[in-house]
Every structure is written in C-alpha cells, then in structure tokens.
C-alpha cells in the first residue's frame, strides 16, 4: 500500500490539512506530521538550538496517524522522516495552504519550504494551495483528479509539483489546468517544466 506523509504551515487544526487528508486516504495509508500552530511565511527555516516536541493527536479523518510538533513546517518533514514514520513515504503532500504559492511568494512559503525539504530528502512531493478566502469549490472538485495525474509523474532532483487552485465557484467554468514543477537551486525557486 502507498504511504503518504502530509504536512502544512497553517497548523494541524487547519481546514486545508483535513481536506487534503480526506483526499489522500483514497490513495493509501496517511500519516500527518504538522505544526501545532500557524507557521506561515517560515520558508525553509529549521530549529537547531531548542528541542522539538512531538505528540500524537486525534485527527478528524478516520485511519490517519497524526502528530503535532512544536517545530516549523520544514522541521515536521525532518522529524517525520527521521523519528516518526517507520518507513520512507512514497509521497509527501503539503497543504492545502490558505493563500496562493506563486511567483516570489514561493520563497517565503512554509508550505513550499516543507515541500522543498521533502524533495531534498528524495521524496516525490506535491504542494497544494488555494485562495485564502475561498470558496473551495474548485479544489474540492479537482484535487483527487489532479493528484491521480501527478502522484506517480516523475520529478527531477529537488523538484516539486506546485498546485494552486483558483478561488472561484464552479460556475466560473474552469477550462484548463496548467501543471508545472518548481525546482529549488541555491535557495531560489525556479519554474522547471510544464
């Protein structure tokens, strides 16, 4: 069975991580390791000089193994891969972030920071984001379909798939989806391919 790790920067209690886990359980066994509180705009920051606490939490999606940490999103990936998960995951999902991760905002995003940490650790990673004020219609309708396309789609070294769902209703008739990967070189994210 496929093993999936989920993290985010909005915290373990966010609506977005719950919705992402509800999608992920359709693809395999899901483990969540996420910050205990909001950590937006933390980029790829990591904790070095203080302990990181980790504890199990009740998660609102049945069958999901969930842990909160006192660390940053990037810390969550390191803690999950080195201390919590008894295996290397097949995929790492980050999000669903409250707010787009596009253009220069990718440099500041804790969601993308966690995704790049996972990619750096050799994990196939997808970051998911949406408009911060909703509605969630487009994400909720298309996330499973897009995930099924990307979950096994190859990535290069230090590349991630970065998905941003528009903040519109289904009546807006979304006509197409642009899919591209992002790679991080020397700390600067760059569009890799479409």
Distance between the termini: 29 Å
The CATH C-level class name: Alpha Beta
Instruction: Report the β-strand fraction as a percent range.
Output: 25-35%
How many distinct helices?
A: 5
The helix/strand order is: EHEEEHEHHEHEEE
Largest sheet: number of strands, sense, barrel closure? 9 strands, mixed
CATH domain topology: Stationary-phase Survival Protein Sure Homolog, Chain: A
Helix coverage percent of residues?
Answer: 25-40%
The counted number of beta strands is: 9
CATH architect. name: 3-Layer(aba) Sandwich
Compute the average pLDDT. 90
Number of domains: 1
Task: Identify the overall geometry.
Answer: globular
Question: Mind telling me the C-alpha Rg?
Answer: 15 Å
CATH superfamily: Survival protein SurE-like phosphatase/nucleotidase
Low-confidence stretches: none
Structural class: alpha/beta
Q: What order do the strands of the largest sheet run in, or round the barrel if closed?
A: 3-4-2-1-5-6-7-8-9
Describe this structure in words.
- The chain is of the alpha/beta class.
- It has one domain: 3-Layer(aba) Sandwich (Stationary-phase Survival Protein Sure Homolog, Chain: A).
- The chain is built from five helices and nine strands; from the N terminus they run βαβββαβααβαβββ.
- The protein has helices spanning 15-24, 73-84, 105-108, 110-120, 137-150, and strands at 3-7, 29-35, 54-56, 65-69, 91-98, 124-130, 159-165, 181-185, 188-193.
- It has a nine-stranded mixed sheet with strand order 3-4-2-1-5-6-7-8-9.
- The longest helix is centred in the last third of the chain and has 14 residues, at 137-150.
- The protein is globular.
- The mean pLDDT is 90.
